Structure formats: structure tokens, C-alpha cells
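Appendix C reproduces, verbatim, an entry submitted by the partner laboratory led by Prof. M.T., so that reviewers can inspect both the input and the predicted structure.
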Amino acid sequence: MSRLVDYAKSAKVDIVLIGAAFVWGASYLAAKQLTEAGSLWGMMALRFGLAALVLFVIRGFKPIKFTKADVLIGAAVGVGLAIVMTFETNGIALTSATNAGLIISLSIIFTPILEGLARKFWLPRDFFVAAAGAVIGVAFLVGGNGLQAPNWGDALMFGAAVLRAYYQVVQGSLTSGRKLTTINLTIFQTLTAGAIFFAADVTGTVRAAIAYGPHEWVLLSFLVLLCTVYGFFAMMWGIRRTSASRIALLQGTEPVWAVLIAMLFGGEQLNWIGALGAVLIIGSCFWGLGIEAKARAARVLANVTLPTQPAQQ
């Protein structure tokens, strides 16, 4: 019975995080159109600033006092988020979508390595095989136009992959075992990131807000409500209930959703190699999730049973 309860809890977390990966995959098309209508930094400032406002309004229905830990940890996570997204957005601008998609997917492998170093607990070798399978799947999915020669954009994307992995591990470590409120953390996470992007381009933020028409505000509302309010709240909620390695695998499905949305609304096509890549990503992720769940359960069981064993004479 206990195992069924644990499985139900794990499945609930996975569903919420897959939902976040889906909306983030859908965000690429919307963000691309918005950056064509105004400043990139302005769009990011509006996105995260408005998300913080929406979260604050939601919090008003069931207010929980902000603690010092909520503010400090939320702000620290927000700074990390701004740094990661700065590397990603500038890297994407300088390299091809194929190179960017493949390189950023390396975070699926970097995350369990960094988490293993931080927690002194290594996942089984098969998990890394599954993670590598997901990266190969990304290569098939996004590699239809071939890879470009390496450039500084690729270096930025590689840095972003390492930083994304490190960010997730640190976020999990900062929030694990602490008495924190998820919505309070997410408010300060998004508020801090929004303030950083606003400071990066004050004029561009104001101009973007003025220049946006009804179509752009619909797209921005999608980014704010689903991709940021839901997406980052789900991530903050999930990281406190599972491992960074598991989250990295679930995020590995993000390119699949991005391609699906691009096909449905952007008129893009998917050849058989890309379809094979999508299947490989999904299959590898589910295989890896099963391995991670068993390893985590075994670790919990060992921590419970070992202290009760009689001391050796």
C-alpha cells in the first residue's frame, strides 16, 4: 500500500513537470514573435515582472507570511535564473537552432553528475545510458538542417547547459528540508529575474509595452500565465519533492513539445529522422525515470533500515 502511495505521489509530480516542459516547449514560438516586435530584454522584463504580480495576487487568496528564508532563497534563485537565461538567449542569437537545441540538452547528463558530486549519491550506470539516449534523440529531432561550424554562440550554449544543471542542483539543495512556502519563493524568483532584465534595458521595456498590439499581448499573456506563473511554480514545487536529475530528464521532453507546436502553428514539417528522435527522447526519458525512482526508493529504504541494525562487535 505504501508503495502505491509513493508511486501516486511520484506520478503527480511527473505530470505537473511534464506540463511545465510542454508549455516551455510552446514558448519558443511565442517568444520569437515577441522579440521581433520589441526588445528581447524588455520582453523578459515584462514577462517576469507581470508573473510576479500575478503570483502576488494569487497569494492574496491564502496569504502566508514572507519569511527571511523565502526572500533570500527566492531572490538567489531568481539571480541564477536570470544568469542562465542570459546565456541561453544570447547563445541562441549567435548560433543555429539545431546547435542550440543539441547543446542545451547536454544538461540532461550534466545534472546527475553535479547532483552526484553534491549529494555523494550516484545513480546507476543505466541512468546515464538513458540520458545519453535522450541527447541522441534531440540530435535526431533538431538535426534536420545539419550542424553548423562551432562559434561563440555554441560556447555560450555549452555554458548555459552547465549553468542550467548547476542551477537545478543548487535550487534543490537550497530548498530541501527547509520550511519554505513555494508561492513566496516563486514570487521573489520571478520578481528578481524581472528586475534584472528591466535594469538591462529600461528604455526597451517601456517601448515594448507601448509597441505591443493585441496579438503581442495575447502572446505575452501566454508566456506570463502558463510559461512563467505555472511553469516556474511547478518547477519550484517539483524540485522540493523529487531530484534535480529526474527534473532534467523530464525537461528533456521540451524539444519534442517545441517541434509539435511548431508543426501545428508554425507550419514546420517533421521527417522520419525527427520522428525517430522524438520517440527516442520519450523512450529514454521514461526508462531513466524508472531507474531514478528505484534508486531513490532504495536510498530512502537504506537510510531507514541501517540505523536500526545492531552494532557490529
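The chain has a mean pLDDT of 84. Additional entries are available on request from the coordinating office.
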